[in-house]
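Homework help board

Subject: predicted structure for assignment chain

Our instructor gave us this sequence and asked us to write out the predicted structure in token form, then describe one feature. I got the tokens but I'm not sure how to describe them. Can anyone check?
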Amino acid sequence: MTRRGRALSALLLWAAVLAVLVWFFAAVGNVGRGNSQQGRQQLETALRRGAVAYYAAEGVYPPTLDALTQRSGIQIDEEYYSVFYEIFADNLMPDITVLVNET
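My token output:
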């Protein structure tokens, strides 16, 4: 094999290694995003269930997010999630939205 052929082979090998590393780190990043979306959905479901349990016990929905979390014991990691809690009336299910914070 000539010098030029060896240099080309080495260059292709490094390009392949770089491509594998880029793919690996992209895959790891996608797993993290998937976990945060799954956590977001679980938190939103827990908050909705907590609101329904509060309604069953009190006859009204929780007036604030603090009232809901104190009563249900749900803890919100505010570093990762933002929760929007909007109540329209005591007897209507509140609008609960959980968003993943960009880090």
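Reply (TA_rk): Your tokens look well-formed. For the description, you could write something like this. Residues 87 and 94 are 4 Å apart (CA to CA). That's the kind of observation they're looking for.
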